[in-house]
Specification:
8 helices, mainly alpha, about 0% strand
Length: about 250
């Protein structure tokens, strides 16, 4: 309750352009850590794009690449963050990013065959959302969004219950809408939450930039997939309406 009260109290703080330059709450070490995290995320996204391309060329995406992503992520999380293991952990992050890209390759290839501009729009939209919300978490007051952790966990549980209920009682169409729109809100929330968690951990000496980059990479991928699905669905509905209009006019 105290965190929630602090959040609403902070909403009354007036915004100014000077706040964009206010990094006084972040020590130089934390700022350098964030720079390493964001550069590593950018590298992971590049490797993920290579994974997508590999699937388009070789058709490697599927269950095995999904398991590869999960396995690489768990392996990375359970590997020591000491300097001696840094190279190994970067390779595990690259493997996880590659496998995730290959797994998403099936969806992306289908959308490319339908309308390539959708993929570009989804990517630009995801970058914009990532920059805006992660930047907002960096510039916000310390611990302002940490209260989201409990809310997000509860929302994930609620979505799992709804998904299970739809399997038993039907309503797959409604559940699909909940998954893509609710899932988008969830990943945006996790982006805010994870960014502030990273700041707090770094401030306390946890400079595991590889693991922190993996967390933000997963958030970015979740946002991208859902924007891609939303744009594809909207484009499909628009095309069907256009076809019905043409059919009526003939």
């Amino acid at each position: 309750m105290d965190a929630a009260a602090a959040f609403f109290e902070n909403r009354s703080t007036p915004w100014s352009y000077d706040s964009l330059k206010n990094f006084k709450t972040l020590s130089p070490n934390v700022q350098r850590h964030l720079q390493r995290v964001y550069l590593t995320v950018a590298g992971a996204l590049l490797v993920s794009a290579i994974g997508v391309y590999a699937h388009i060329l070789l058709g490697i995406g599927g269950l095995l690449t999904s398991l590869g992503f999960i396995g690489s992520s768990i392996w990375l999380a359970n590997t020591s963050s000491s300097a001696a293991e840094e190279g190994k952990r970067l390779k595990l992050l690259a493997a996880a990013a590659f496998f995730e890209g290959a797994s998403l390759g099936t969806l992306i290839q289908a959308v490319l065959s339908f309308d390539p501009s959708i993929v570009v729009t989804a990517l630009l939209g995801s970058v914009a959302i990532f920059a805006c919300f992660s930047g907002a978490a960096v510039l916000a007051r310390r611990r302002e969004f940490l209260f989201l952790g409990g809310l997000l966990t509860s929302a994930v549980s609620a979505m799992m219950i709804l998904q299970f209920s739809s399997m038993l009682f039907g309503g797959a169409s409604f559940m699909y809408m909940v998954e893509i729109y609710g899932g988008l809100l969830l990943f945006v929330g996790f982006l805010l939450f994870d960014t502030q968690i990273i700041i707090e951990k770094a401030d306390r000496g946890d400079r595991d930039y590889v693991k922190h980059a993996l967390d933000l990479f997963v958030d970015f991928a979740g946002v991208f997939v859902r924007i891609l699905l939303i744009l594809t669905r909207n484009a499909g509905e628009k095309e069907r309406k256009e076809e019905r209009r043409r059919a009526k006019s003939t």
